[in-house]
């Protein structure tokens, strides 16, 4: 019987890792940097207070909300189109072979290469940013969904059809539960890729968002604020990934559903 580790033993390694990283950061930017060097502007003792300076100006919260809205808009488009496309490609072998070279070609193009096209089509604003996020995030959803459909055991499909299930019922009762882990994994990967693409996309012709604020701080030679914004972006990305892992975990969904299943069984 394995003993469950205590909270202290679980939290100590991550805390130690963060402390070491901050120490290395401080050594590189404060101790090893030459006096008067530009590197000193990125030191933790200057970057962390700069977060408070940005928050006091009232722009940080607005930029975070704006960036999250653009991210969710792009992920929504990528999720809907990617899931539908992945199911179609995974279900029809001819369609899979026909689209594979095109998808591989498009997947290997940097999403930021589409920036002039996005600005030409959608103009200035959140639409081109959401387009670039969707262009980057759609491929993990497509590929994972298609892989999940192809991995469905055909024996389950035959059993469902032998019991009189139609196409729609077979899809909803057999295929959807089987591909759920693959789809959720694709969504989590899409979230990470979309967040990485969002910041440079906001440096292209918009006047708000975290990416825009980095350019604005650079133009003002406020490099401590540049580092502060980098910290905010990293923390937000970590929080988003943690929330996605918690919300999209198939095991968590199973644990949540188990009590309800037991109650239904007892009632029956």
TrEMBL record:
Protein's name according to its UniProt entry: NitT/TauT family transport system permease protein
Membrane topology value: Multi-pass membrane protein
Organism superkingdom: Bacteria
SUPFAM superfamilies attached to this UniProt entry: MetI-like
Keywords on record: Cell membrane, Membrane, Transmembrane, Transmembrane helix, Transport
Glycosyltransferase among keywords: no
UniProt-annotated location(s): Cell membrane
Domain ABC transmembrane type-1: 64-244
Record field: transmembrane: 68-92, 104-124, 130-152, 189-206, 226-248
PANTHER family: ALKANE SULFONATE ABC TRANSPORTER-RELATED, MEMBRANE SUBUNIT (PTHR30151), TAURINE TRANSPORT SYSTEM PERMEASE PROTEIN TAUC (PTHR30151:SF25)
Keyword Zinc: no
Family of this protein: Belongs to the binding-protein-dependent transport system permease family.
